[in-house]
Amino acid sequence: MNIGIKDAHPKWLRQRIKATNAVFSILASILLLLLLSSLIFATQIMTIAVSLSLLIVAITIWLHSLGFHYLTRILVSILPVIVASCIQGAYQMHNQLPNASAWVFIIGFQVLPFLLFDPSEKKFRIVTITINIVIAFCYEQFNQWIELPEIPFTPPIQVFITIAIGLILVIGLLSAMDSIFVKTNKENTDLLKRVEQEKEEQNRAQERLNNTLAELNKSKVEEEKRIWAAKGLADIGKIMRESDELNDLSNSVIMYLVKILGANQAGLFLIEGDNEDRFLEMKACYAYQRKKYIKKQVAIGEGLIGQCYLEKEHIYLIDVPEDYILIGSGLGDAKPRCILLVPLVANDIVYGVIEIASFKEFQTHEVNFLLEVGENIALTVRSIKTNEQTQTLLYETQAMAEQMKSQEEEMRQSMEEIAATQEELTRREEELKAEIRAKDEQIVALERKLQKLSTIPLAVTSH
Q: What is the band of 353 on the pLDDT scale with cuts at 50, 70, 90?
């Protein structure tokens, strides 16, 4: 039966209410059997007692349905003992009814507090057990209170039936209690299994969560590294855009790289010279000792810097030679923990080398950052050198143009002088031609005169 059970009740209370309902069923069945027995054998006192007990059970069930669970469980726990004690007291002095018949009921009903109350309700168990013990030992007082005008004879068969019913009642209560305990044990076992499964699931979920957190932390670290590298590249790009001269660019870049990498020493070398006499010249440095690069020049292939230039690959040293480089401070000199050399390569052409020394080892993302920075610096150096060469060619072209313009002016003047001279010569030639023609005319005239003169004497002679 589910009388008085509500969804809002906790699980343990629902189990105890079900147990109470089961006891109601057993009590009602036993009382009906006793009522039937008393009616058959015409036992008036038993009929009255059983009828009264059935009435009380009915009232208790009604209260139970209204939600008075604590009250009804207490009544159910003590009511059978009260009835049994009353019957025991009524028959003790006037009949030879064995005390065992009543005590079977009384002892059997002592299991009710354990059946109807949860272990957490220990005080209710103690109270009901105490009341039952007190009632059981007060049957003589009940005998004095109950005065029967006539004590009917109780057939032995009724006694045995009563004892049998009592045994059935005890067995039924114990069976109900065992059923509840078995069910509770099974539920507890299932609960423990579920708890273990949930614990395993929780452990797996915790492990997945830990793995997820580890991945998130790793992603966060990687993202922070990417942000750091992106910001560094942006800052380097800004520096290179604002620098139009190699020395300013070199100084600004070295100062920034030392700061962002947490390094202690750095130098930037750029290729100079012609094809046959090329060398690496230091354009900028940070915390370098002057005695190491007193000329600020490194030959191609000389030392790590020259080797880095030839191989076009970065060099990362953790075991730094004792005499390679020292980082100086006010407290003295100390050998760096690591050296990083990065070639400035663009389109497979090396434009220089960056050397950085530090007391701490460089991480992978810092090395990759410096490699990318090296390529950007190489592109910028190439651009600046190209601009410088273009500017030089422009200056040379302008100077050549000015020179050609001056030569053109000189040539124009010479041409003008030549043209004037040629005009003078032409004029002179014309004058000479005119003089020659005049002279020719004079000669012709003289010849004519001479001919005339030569003909006159001949005429005179003939006369």
A: very high
Cβ-contact 282, 305 below 8 angstroms? no
List the Cα angle 134/22/52 in 5-degree steps. Answer: 55
Report the C-alpha gap between 243 and 250 in whole angstroms: 9
Please tell me whether the overall predicted TM-score, pTM, comes out greater than 0.70 for this model.
no
Instruction: Look up residue 337 and give its two tokens.
Output: 């923990």
* CB-based contacts of 99, cutoff 8 Å, min separation 6: 88, 92
Q: In what order do the strands lie in the sheet with 279-286?
A: 297-299, 279-286, 265-272, 349-358, 338-346, 315-317
- 3-class secondary-structure state, position 322: coil
pLDDT in tens, 260-283: 888 888 889 998 887 778 888 888
Query: CB 113: neighbour CB atoms within 10 A?
Result: 24
Domain ranges of the chain: 11-201, 243-395
Phi, psi dihedrals of residue 91, rounded to the nearest 5°: -95, -10
The b-or-e profile of 157-191 (16+ CB within 10 A means b, else e) is ebbebbbebbeebbebbeebbeebeeebeeeeeee
- CATH topology (fold) of 243-395: Beta-Lactamase (3.30.450)
**Rounded to whole angstroms, what are the CA distances from 391 to 109, 243, 388, 395?**
117, 16, 5, 6
Q: Cα(242)–Cα(256) distance, rounded to whole angstroms?
A: 14
User: What token pair was written down for 276?
Assistant: 């046959």
* Cα 329 to Cα 287: distance, rounded to the nearest angstrom: 9
pLDDT tens for residues 439-457?
A: 878 888 887 787 777 776 5
Q: How far is CA 266 from CA 259, 341, 363, 371, in A?
A: 10, 10, 17, 15
Residues 6+ apart with CB under 8 A from 87: 45, 46, 49, 102
- In total, the chain counts a number of residues equal to 463
